[in-house]
Amino acid sequence: MSTFKAVRIDKDDAGYRAGFVEMNEADLMDGDVTVRVTHSTVNYKDGLAITGKSPVVRKFPMIPGVDFCGVVEKSDTDEFKAGDKVILNGWGVGEGHFGGYAQKARLKSDWLVHLPDGLKPEEAMAIGTAGYTAMLCLMALEKHGIKPEMGPAIVTGSAGGVGSVAIALLKRAGFHVIASTRRPEEADYLKGMGADEILDIKAEFQGAPKPLMKERWACGIDAVGSLTLAHVIAATKYNGAIAACGLAQGMDLPTTVVPFILRGVALLGVESVQCSKQMRIEAWGRLAKELDKAKLASMITHVPFEHVMDAARDIVAGTVRGRIVVDIG
Questions:
Q1: Are strands 217-222 and 153-155 parallel, antiparallel or unpaired?
Q2: What is the pTM of this model?
Q3: Which residue, of 66, 72, 101, 210, has the fewest CB within 10 Å?
């Protein structure tokens, strides 16, 4: 049986470590579809898994990588056949089930969606869980009845993966977009994504916010959490809504009930890991049609498979801009 390359995380008496290993198909976990992985990406969660900075991995040994795109080699289901191009994201892959940092993967067909027409595999991984989550956030805001004429939209963590795609999607939807960032040197990049204004949170979001602040935006997409989200909520307009999907700054939320009961602000939690297949298909279909491919290309950094662990460390350190595409090969 031919071997393939994979990143494996081990935890034992010798400690927590990640490194490249050679594996074969007999080593893979159960599933009804086997995929030759062509591309993956690096999300913040992948960085936490490889560095061990947070207990993301639930089972050892583990192949990390919560996203991948590839070609079906074997299938025991009628939904997929050999040669189909597929996308995987979420479902605990890379945490409790072997993930995308390997040249082969075997998993449940229920977790896969077909690569939409008009989207290349490397573009799908440039989008990845981050961009797919940004689309779920936009869908949540739309479902809540938020429209561009209600006022501006703020995006936090805007130079990151979720933020970059969120800016492009909100701009296309007609919103005036305010990009919130700790890296004002990224202003040109953010404006290229579609941002109309740059907000330096180091200057404007200091300390604990007041329960209510001046109304500044009608909606927002937040991937940061903690104090940043508290400030965003406090400055949200009457009947506005914030879609929250991340916790890069922390899991706490030091706010009060005041914005919710005096301004009718809604906090919309957006979950992407266990999202229904129907919503996944809708989100990926919309991304294929609505995301500007030129803007997508401008946010991509390509890295070869052998450099994926360096990229994972960089994303945890907060030095990554936009999206990383890993060419598995």
A1: parallel
A2: 0.91
A3: 210
* Neighbouring C-beta atoms of residue 25, cutoff 10 Å: 14
* Residues near 82 by beta carbon (within 8 Å), at least 6 away in sequence: 72, 73, 74, 75
Confidence of residue 113 (pLDDT cuts 50, 70, 90): very high
Residue 233: strand, helix, or coil: helix
pLDDT score of 1 more than 80: no
Q: What would the pLDDT profile of 218-260 be if each residue is shown by its tens digit?
A: 999 999 999 999 999 999 999 999 999 998 888 999 999 999 9
Residue 263 has phi, psi (to 5 degrees) of -115, -5
The pLDDT score that the predictor gives to residue 134 is 97
Contact present, 124 and 115 (Cβ < 8 Å): yes
Tell me the domains of the chain and their CATH numbers: 3-115+299-327 (3.90.180.10), 129-269 (3.40.50.720)
Phi, psi for 21 (deg, rounded to 5): -140, 165
Whole-Å CA distances, 305 to 41, 70, 232, 326:
10, 14, 38, 6
Backbone φ and ψ of 265, nearest 5° = -70, 140
On the question of pLDDT at 326 being above 90, the answer is yes
Three-state DSSP state, 149 = helix
Residue 114, both tokens: 């077909």
